[in-house]
Design goal:
Elements lengths: L8 H14 L1 H11 L20 E5 L2 E4 L4 E4 L2 H4 L8 H12 L11 H14 L3 E5 L2 H16 L3 E5 L34 H4 L2 E4 L4 H11 L3 E6 L2 E2 L5 E2 L2 H14 L2 E5 L22 E4 L10 E5 L1 H4 L21 H16 L1 H24 L6 E2 L12 E2 L1 E2 L11 H4 L7 H13 L3 E2 L5 E2 L6 H21 L1
Parallel strand pairs: 3-16, 5-6, 5-7, 7-10, 10-11
Antiparallel strand pairs: 1-2, 2-3, 4-12, 8-9, 11-12, 13-15, 14-17
Helix pairs in contact: 1-14, 4-11, 5-11, 8-9, 12-15, 14-15
This protein binds pyridoxal-5'-phosphate (PLP).
Pyridoxal-5'-phosphate (PLP) binds next to helix 6.
Amino acid sequence: MTIVPRDHTHLLGELSREYAQHAPASAALASRAKKVLVDGGSHALRLREPFPPRLVAAQGAWIRDEDGHEILDFWQGHFANLLGHNPACVSSALTSAFQGNYGLLTGFADRLQVETAEILCRQTGADRVRFTTSGALATMYAVLLARAFTGRHRVVKVGGGWHGAQPWGLKGVGFSTDEEVGFQEVDTAGLPHTLTDEVIITRFNDPNMLHDHFRRFGDRTACFIVEPFIGAGGLIPATSEYLQTARELTHRYGAVLIFDEVISGFRFHAGDAGSLFGIQPDLATFGKIIGGGMPVAAVAGRADILRLVGQESGFKVKFSGGTYSAHPASLLAAKTYISYLEAHASEIYPYLSELGQRTRQTVEAAFAEEGLLARCSGCDSDVLPPSSISGLVFPYRDDLRLDSPDVVRNPALVDTVLGEEVLRRALLLEDIHVFHGLGALTTAHTTEDIERLGNACHKVAKRVKASL
Ligand SMILES: Cc1ncc(COP(=O)(O)O)c(C=O)c1O
């Protein structure tokens, strides 16, 4: 059956005009911003059309914009928040540190790094940790380490996997509608193709394709980098079979297995997702949640691999730190946050799982009432608890398995414009901010918030239906 993608151009235009009236202060700032900032800002994801809400405050589940709207937020710090915006435990720790002449101090070693690394090792099974300032840097260093450790070049990554803007991460992120291409394109200009040719794209949750790759190129492969729960690729859990295959093949061929846990780390329990699958990767990267709202990321893993960054190996891999790496204010936030998650895990994680299930049911039902097929991702795991982070997609067929970015990012299979653009703009008019159709829950979200989301989705569903 040939599917004719729905055309939402007219509705998108209407929503943009209404939003310009709804948020005039943000609109005015958008015009001003475009005169001095490329596209009006410094992060493309925050600058979606027609213009973003400009924020003045954020607390718990809510954000407030320049126009005075109180907006229910499911983007939650690029999915870094687990306790809502500005959690009291972190803001009070930072306030006292700043008042005690401790916050803006960098350039020295301190106890915070030790204590935070101790928690990370305890909760993830890693031998050693080195901190950095962003997830992109962490994955870049992990790949450098893998290549240096194995003496090999090839880097295998998943189509649709986002590991941040770093040389080996910028291929196969964006989906090309050309059927021959899919996730094979290089996503940035400026990289030598000798480097991008070394990055091999494989399909998420497809163990056969992984077998095939290792059979042919296993002896040249430095590493396989994969998310146990893929984030930007559609918020989809890896299957246990897939990750077990990855572990087995990397072992057999002497390649390094890197779990990118920037999204999944501390999202499902107070530790790495890998351990829930019973798999210890060789290296894991963390970011987002571990920073407690501050720029903290880490590479954690085997001592014999991480020793390549140290004195003993002559600093073979230049992961030696930067001016703001392991900044005390950041590490204070990190330590406070992950200690809190560890101490309150038995209340936090079951609550988030239950709210995740309720959210998915509520949202899918709101669209079903109007005869629109909507499906939430994030829940079909044979291992992970029900997720507190979900995407929302609108498949053209009921029997579609949402198990890979190749499905959820393919506009021939799902209505990506409805999921990514229409919904976001329409819900902003209801003072609700979503991402990838839905987004992340935190302990600050309540069942009343989910009810409100459901009612707003129903309103949007009616409008979408009327526009078709
Ligand atoms: C899985 C994953 N890895 C790495 C990154 C990059 O992290 P950062 O934005 O901190 O550079 C991201 C960011 O979204 C991510 O989702």
